[in-house]
């Protein structure tokens, strides 16, 4: 699930679902956390603190573009709790902050470095597994095919089994530029409900979900 998508969850909060690799988070577009160069949009996740830490380590271990020294510098800055000290780390390495934020930086050679908020600040809310079964399910990564008669090809989504149905629907809606409320998903004849976890529906890797758009409404813009 590349990129991110936006859906309105309430009259006050707008949430963007962003995916980095196989890690999906919910970003609040109208809330911020952190100070100075470490200020980012607030975010939450269905993962536990241990799972989030693993995803952070995976992020730093898989950086291949730009200068390796640049990534090491950025990791040091992100690990530094004091925003002023973090900025000094960046400046001493000859790197520049775009609009004063660690989210986008440039090195002396012009290489650009983009950081997701989860490596800069902790979430405002972690997931809380309610049983050992949920903990096990949360460690599974699935590749699901989303099949809709209105489109020629299946849309493939990589998800965590503990993700909510709504986040998967949001990804589908954003990709095809339609409204979230128009999307209905079914598996083995059973409709998936927004607030449920994907692991509640006995899905597995390579499962095919059927998507119907009975009230298709194109997003504006």
UniProtKB/TrEMBL annotation:
Domain Ubiquitin-like spans what residues? 142-213
What InterPro entries does the record point to? DC-UbP/UBTD2_N, DC-UbP/UBTD2_N_sf, Ubiquitin-like_dom, Ubiquitin-like_domsf, UBTD1/2
CDD domains in the record? Ubl_ubiquitin_like
Tell me the Pfam families matching this sequence: UBD, ubiquitin
What protein name does the entry list?
Answer: Ubiquitin-like domain-containing protein
């Amino acid at each position: 699930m590349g990129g991110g998508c936006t859906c309105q969850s309430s009259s006050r909060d707008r949430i963007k679902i962003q995916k980095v690799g196989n890690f999906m988070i919910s970003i609040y577009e109208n809330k911020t956390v952190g100070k100075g160069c470490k200020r980012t949009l607030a975010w939450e996740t269905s993962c536990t603190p241990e799972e989030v830490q693993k995803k952070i380590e995976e992020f730093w271990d898989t950086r291949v573009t730009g200068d390796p020294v640049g990534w090491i510098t950025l990791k040091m800055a992100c690990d530094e709790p004091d925003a002023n000290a973090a900025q000094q780390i960046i400046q001493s390495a000859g790197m520049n902050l775009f609009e004063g934020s660690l989210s986008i930086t440039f090195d002396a050679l012009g290489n650009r470095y983009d950081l997701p908020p989860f490596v800069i600040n902790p979430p405002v809310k972690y997931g809380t597994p309610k049983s050992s079964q949920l903990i096990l399910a949360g460690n599974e990564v699935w590749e699901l095919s989303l099949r809709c008669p209105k489109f020629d090809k299946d849309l493939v989504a990589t998800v965590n089994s503990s993700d909510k149905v709504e986040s998967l629907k949001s990804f589908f809606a954003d990709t095809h530029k339609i409204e979230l409320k128009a999307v209905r998903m079914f598996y083995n004849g059973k409709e998936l409900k927004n607030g449920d976890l994907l692991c509640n529906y006995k899905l597995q890797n390579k499962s095919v979900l059927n998507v119907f758009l009975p009230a298709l409404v194109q997003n504006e813009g």
